[in-house]
Write a structure and sequence with these properties.
Blueprint lengths: L2 E7 L3 E6 L4 H8 L17 E6 L2 E3 L9 H5 L2 E3 L3 E3 L3 E4 L24 H4 L5 E7 L11 H12 L5 E3 L1 H4 L2 H7 L3 E9 L2 E9 L7 E7 L3 E8 L5 E8 L9 H10 L3 H24 L6 E8 L1 H8 L21 E2 L12 E4 L9 H10 L8 E5 L3 E7 L4 E7 L19 E8 L2 E6 L7 E2 L1 H13 L18 E4 L2 E7 L10 E4 H25 L8 E5 H4 L4 H6 L11 E5 L1 H11 L1 H13 E3 L6 H9 L20
Parallel strand pairs: 1-7, 9-11, 12-15, 15-17, 18-27, 20-29, 21-23, 27-28
Antiparallel strand pairs: 1-2, 3-5, 3-7, 4-6, 8-10, 10-11, 12-13, 13-14, 16-17, 18-19, 19-20, 21-22, 24-25, 25-26
Helix pairs in contact: 7-8, 10-15, 10-16, 12-17, 15-16
Length: 632
Amino acid sequence: MRKFKVTFLPDGKDIEVEENTTLMQAAGKAGVYVNTICGGKGVCGKCRVQVINGKAKADKHAIALLTKEEIDDSYVLACQTRVQDNLEVVIPPESRLEAEQILLTDSFVSEAASVESAHFEPLVQKLYMELQEPSNEDNIADSDRIIRELKRKTKYNAYERSLGCLRELGSKLRNSGWKVTATIARQNNGWKILEIDTGDTNDNNYGLAIDVGTTTVVAQLLHLQSGKVIGGEGTHNLQSNYGEDVITRIAFACGKEQGLQELHKSIVKNINDLITSLTDKHGIDRKDITAIVAAGNTTMSHFLLGLMPCSIRLAPYVPTTHSFPQIKAREIDIDIYPEGILETLPDVASYVGGDIVSGVLACGIAEKPEIKVLIDIGTNGEIALGNNDWIVCCSASAGPAFEGGGVSCGMRAIRGAIQKIEIKNSMVQYRTIQRAKPRGICGSGLIDCIYELVKNGIIDQQGHFNMSTKNDRIIVKDDEPQFIVAFANETESGDDITLKESDITNLIRSKGAVFAAIKSLTDYVGIAFNAIDTFFVAGGFGNYLNISKSISIGLLPDIDPKKIQFVGNSSLIGARMALLSKTAFEHTADIANMMTNIELSTYLPYMDEYIASLFLPHTDKKLFPSVDYWQS
């Protein structure tokens, strides 16, 4: 089969691919991100690219998603266009990913996080030893001599020996003058000696805590001898080229030959790239990384380990496993110390994963009798409610609206995204990420916009435009009312950035799904909102929310704002705690076992709550006494 070169601009990256490869596939192989929501099905229209040189075969049905002007300018959908020549392809700003806001650090420290210091006991440790030489009176085997000394230096009594540590052990001991360093790793029933190094390599011991998110992958590099965070890096999940949400990716994994392998390799590449970036930046040998703890939702954990996820999306929604074995990282081609271990935190249900278990650990929900809530708002809004006696949890399918999907001018939190909006006297003030020219509206900006529109009487509480309102920003285009947030002369693309009535409907449905899930859980256990001691909001999206506006549109319950606390990347915090503390790691299994999942798709009261929530802020005024626009 013939091969052709495709050059992607403005990145300037080249890739050679076989004839009839789609531009989306070519971009993925070149390491170039092209925006997509539908996972290459040709129905979202987000992957517009411009072919400026060469011949490509575009699917005739894809033109329905392009304007006449775009077609005349050689725009095509990357997922529906096949390579038939050497090509130069421009990825326009709206289809690119640039400078996404990814939370790499956290200032949140819960009482539970003190486990890191109170129970500091990393999953992999190095111990320097100066051994006594054998004698006629003390002639035990070399490996027994190592174990005897380890028992003296630690509180651990059970040790296994790996074959790797036995190889050349005798010569290592004798050539080093019996001064060696043992690398030991936690096992289910004790500890395992991974390797014996000559001399004192005690200080060369590092680990990674990783949040394997649907949208982003974030890693922290830690010094395992001190517990110090050396640095953090984040990147966009390369699996996004196969779909923005887990359902689309599962369909790809289960519907295409080698689909699972492609998704698995993508996440491994993400991790290896983060390792390269962190080790290069901090001058560390990647072979000194001896342990990784990863936290992700159920689907992401399956993809990471190469487990088939097909049954996750099919009733009765049963994954392959909820607990994952410790493996050597090299078994899945993660490039660290050859004997280094990978631990994946346990899941609870098909849509409540190890990231939420990790978050519960980080927030200390399972430690004290006060009732606390953790909510991670994304495509799925995962919620955990409880205390040290019980925890109930659920996942609400909020859809991609808060991440820019299903909204005409929606986008992720990257450069140029409008993230803050205020309307005063018909004047719109907004702020974009990096103060760049507007390119679209991200999740926090969409919430601001909905609130400002309803507060100013531009839309009613059902999300319909009040067409009698005199405002030159209200227009009707293609028979649909919409509000101009940024005029064409202000934007990067030269087009108006608007919010359509159908966009508002999608956002109301999304916020309704989240609130209905919270209300369903509290009703299920029979408590009122005011009984909640602390309401933790996790994730990058939550970190930029305006609390009062989120309450006023009915996304969050109307409780004392002082009870609402942003916790940043709680999944990453919990993974770090588990890496640095054997006690915390083992506690994640206890937390997962005590969490009771409520499957909302079969929980009848949920649908009633959802219907009641399709209003700004809600049909029940008593639930939102502080909202100030009821009488507007």
